[in-house]
Amino acid sequence: MGYVMKKCAVAGLVALGALLSFSAVAKDLSSTIERVWMKGDGKLWLKMTSDEFDAYCKPGWYGFNLYIPDSDPAYPYYYGLITSALAKQQSLFIANIDKFDGTESCDLTETAYGIVVQKA
Fold this sequence. Notes:
By secondary structure, the protein is α+β, with helices and mostly antiparallel strands. The protein has 2 helices and 6 strands; from the N terminus they run αβββαβββ.
């Protein structure tokens, strides 16, 4: 392989790598919790103070659009973290929120990263 062809091949691989890294960037959001609702079906519903979540998770009754299903094995831990964050006005960091397209409410256990509570 000639020198010029090697340079072109390397440049092509670098460009492809850059393109793939940009396309794999996920959208993460952080906000404080505005309100929490324990629905009769067992789901723990959240409404965040940032309206950015509405673009990815369709608001339902009273604006609630994020939830944790009671079927998740870590439900008690989510419940504890969320209610504590609400009481202390701490932020929740939600990674990969763009996994959702805004057509329905979001099950936060499906992001593959769970939730992160950040210091107030």
